[in-house]
Design a protein that fits this description.
mainly alpha, elongated
Length: 152
C-alpha cells in the first residue's frame, strides 16, 4: 500500500546544495579539457550541464552557459580562422600569390593555435576559483550571460 502511494506522488525537483553547485560549476569549467581529447565535446558537456541544472541552480546554469559560449568562441573560432586562412592560401596558390602567403599562413596558424590552448588554461583558472567558493566570470562573456539569465 505504501509503495502505491509513493509511486503516485508527483516528483519534486531535486534541490542542490552549495557543495553540489560548486562541483557542477567546476565540471562545467573543466569541460574544456574534453576538447583536448575529442576536439569538440567540451561545449556539448557544458550544454548538457546547463540543460540539467537550468531550473535547479542559477549558479550552475551561469557557469555552464558561459563556459559553453567561451569554448565555442575561442576553441571553434580559432580553428575556423586557421581553416579559413589556409583555404585562402590554397585558393590563391592557383595564381602564385598563395605561395608567397604560405609563411604568413604558418605564422597565423601558430598564433591562432594559441587561442584554444589559452581557453583551456582560462577554463582551468575558472574551475580553481569556483572550487574555492569564488565566482568566476569569463572576459567579455560573463556579463552577457549574466544579463541573459537574469533577463536584464
Amino acid at each position: 500500500m505504501t509503495n502505491e502511494t509513493n509511486l503516485s506522488t508527483p516528483l519534486q525537483p531535486v534541490q542542490t546544495g552549495p557543495g553540489d553547485e560548486r562541483t557542477w560549476s567546476l565540471l562545467a569549467h573543466l569541460s574544456v579539457l574534453l576538447n583536448l581529447v575529442t576536439g569538440f565535446a567540451g561545449p556539448i558537456a557544458a550544454l548538457v550541464i546547463y540543460l540539467v541544472y537550468k531550473d535547479r541552480s542559477r549558479t550552475v546554469a551561469y557557469h555552464a552557459l558561459q563556459s559553453m559560449i567561451f569554448q565555442l568562441i575561442w576553441w571553434y573560432g580559432g580553428g575556423l580562422l586557421i581553416g579559413l586562412m589556409w583555404a585562402i592560401v590554397g585558393a590563391l596558390s592557383a595564381i602564385l600569390i598563395g605561395v608567397i602567403l604560405i609563411p604568413f599562413a604558418i605564422i597565423f596558424t601558430l598564433v591562432f593555435a594559441c587561442l584554444p590552448l589559452g581557453a583551456v588554461v582560462y577554463g582551468i583558472i575558472g574551475a580553481v576559483q569556483v572550487s574555492q567558493g569564488g565566482d568566476f566570470k569569463y572576459w567579455l562573456v560573463g556579463d552577457w550571460v549574466r544579463g541573459t539569465l537574469t533577463g536584464l
